[in-house]
Amino acid sequence: MLTRDEFDKLAALLRHLHICLGLKFALMDDQAREVFSSSRQADFCAAVKRLPGGRERCMHCDRAALEEMSATQKMKTYRCHCGLMEVAMPVVENGQIVASILFGQFLDETPREKQWQDTAVRLDWTPEPAALREDFDRLAVVSSAQLFSLIEIIHACISEVRLQGMLSAAQMSEAHHLQLFIRQHYAQPLTLERLCAEMHMSKSKLSLLCRQELHASPGELILQARIEAARALLTESRAGVKEIAQAVGFPDASYFGQRFRQACGETPGAYRRRKREEAARQRSGQKDV
Fold first, then answer.
1. Which end of the chain is more exposed for a tag (fewer CB within 10 A), N or C?
2. Is 33:46 a contact under the CB 8 Å cutoff?
3. Alpha helices in 190-288, H assignment, sequence order
4. What three-state secondary structure class fits 279?
């Protein structure tokens, strides 16, 4: 399983690739939840998603690709429902997919006109497929050699992140080990007994470690990890508050809302609205520059 730090490092590398290449990248966790998505997408794809039912078709296409990739645990290169090239790459550890990387929104070496003809047929559900032609003509072309090189670079990024993680684990203190275990398992039922078993410590020794090294109780550390994960999901996902509560390990939405407000000073809904307003203002400011 990738740690939160490893997810962050991999997301940063994908962000750099997005800046260099202009392609859309997304990083998913082992539950197919989006951890990172590059901010800009191709104008063509943005236009398709604005059409009635367009976003749903794109989401269904991505889900189908992830399901097929998960079944085979192998990389899948395919054309999306609009005919654009997409790639789904699994990150496999001990026979299990611990993360997935999606990237695409480009054309291959086939003549652009031929690809447009295919796309126009696929867009028969839209009122005016021809209206999308200008955006289609601006799509990047990635040759087979370039795609192979890009995939190799992504594999190298994954290897680098995992190597750094293994080196860090070898030098990890007991306090760091505990924090890492909680970050990896916060969504599961975490009892004091389970933490003691993982750390090979008595309850008194574990409590002393938490108090002296981390300045919090075991329960407070678990709550902090769950609140941190909830804040990220409220900001980055469209999941409902009840779904998020369950995803981060709270028994019900009411209790989640109570603990979130105590920790953050506002309700989950208010936090999400504030973050969306801040993001909208930031986007507006970037457009004005």
1. C
2. no
3. 192-199, 203-209, 218-236, 241-247, 253-264, 268-288
4. helix
Residues 6+ apart with CB under 8 A from 237: 33, 34, 244
Residues in the chain: 289
**Structure tokens of 246?**
């369950």
Given a cut of 90, whether residue 204 has pLDDT beyond it is: yes
pLDDT digits (tens, 9 = 90+) for 56-81: 999 999 999 999 999 999 999 999 99
78 DSSP β-pair partners: 86
β pairing state of 85-93 and 76-79: antiparallel
Please tell me the distance from the alpha carbon of residue 99 to that of residue 94, in angstroms, as a whole number: 13
DSSP state at residue 84 = -
Contact 23, 101 (CB under 8 A): no
Choose among 169, 247, 189, 183: nearest CA to 214: 183
CA–CA–CA angle 283, 285, 287 (5° rounding): 70
pTM: 0.59
DSSP β-bridge partners for residue 24: 104
Please list, in sequence order, all residues whose beta carbon lies within 8 angstroms of the beta carbon of residue 102, skipping any fewer than 6 positions away.
Answer: 25, 26, 27, 28, 62, 65, 66, 86, 87, 88, 89
Measured CA to CA, the distance from residue 273 to residue 183 in angstroms comes to 26
